[in-house]
Write a structure and sequence with these properties.
The protein has helices spanning 14-31, 39-49, 53-65, 67-75, 77-83, 121-124, 129-132, 134-142, 144-150, 187-191; strands spanning 98-102, 107-112, 160-165, 171-175. By secondary structure, it is of the alpha/beta class. The protein folds into 2 domains: 12-47, no CATH class; 53-192, Nitrile hydratase alpha /Thiocyanate hydrolase gamma (Nitrile Hydratase, Chain A), CATH 3.90.330. The strands form 2 sheets. It has a two-stranded parallel sheet. The longest helix has 18 residues, at 14-31. The chain is globular.
Length: 210
């Protein structure tokens, strides 16, 4: 088992057990006529191709090159989504009220859901396993600098770390700092630098040469 978060561990057979439970539930729902045999595949395909971190990357890249768009994104994330050629439903399920906070040289933001796994699916995709883990949810609030260090994010003591708790009412995500040495990159090239982890605040964006 591999995980970006070193503190997240689970038994070797957890995936197999979870898969068996999911298949049993799917079979039962199909048998009762609640879903069809294609429903689950269609949902997964939707989040592979329509709703995912590639949308967040486009929004961040545009904000990096367009100050007016950045202002709108920080003030009204959902309105900013409507400005770009993004899939329909960006403000639908799991994205009704999205808010974005900006990382700066003085402030580093991290998002978490302390109650469960609330997450901005339209812009970041499906939440990773470790994001749901009670250990991560508790530790990142209690000792954020230590947890970030375990992710490989080393911040100066002068940097203020802020934790944003996502909920059913507001789904938070992060506008990372643009890395140095990317002045010549196009908007599309900038978008390729973004990762879900950077837009969660547990990773930094780096130029490809780094």
């Amino acid at each position: 088992m591999t995980s970006l978060y070193p503190g997240f561990r689970y038994d070797a057979d957890k995936e197999a057990i979870s898969e068996a439970r999911a298949k049993a539930l799917e079979s039962l729902l199909i048998e009762k006529g609640v879903i069809t045999g294609k429903t689950v595949d269609q949902v997964l395909s939707y989040f592979d191709t329509e709703m995912g971190p590639f949308n967040g990357a486009k929004l961040v890249a545009r904000a990096w090159v367009d100050p007016e768009f950045k202002k709108l994104l920080l003030e009204d994330c959902n309105a900013a989504c409507e400005m770009l050629d993004l899939p329909n439903g960006m403000s639908g399920a799991e994205g009704e009220h999205m808010r974005i906070v900006e990382n700066t040289a003085d402030v580093h933001n991290v998002v978490v859901c302390t109650l469960c796994s609330c997450y901005p699916w339209p812009t970041l995709g499906l939440p990773p396993y470790w994001f749901k883990d009670p250990t991560f949810r508790a530790r990142v609030v209690r000792e954020p600098r230590v947890v970030l260090g375990e992710f490989g994010v080393q911040l100066s003591d002068s940097v203020n770390i802020r934790i944003w708790d996502s909920s059913a009412q507001i789904r938070w995500w992060v506008l990372p700092m643009r890395p140095e040495g990317t002045e010549s990159l196009s908007e599309e090239e900038l978008a390729k630098l973004l990762t879900p982890e950077a837009m969660m605040g547990v990773a930094l964006v780096k130029a490809k040469s780094e």
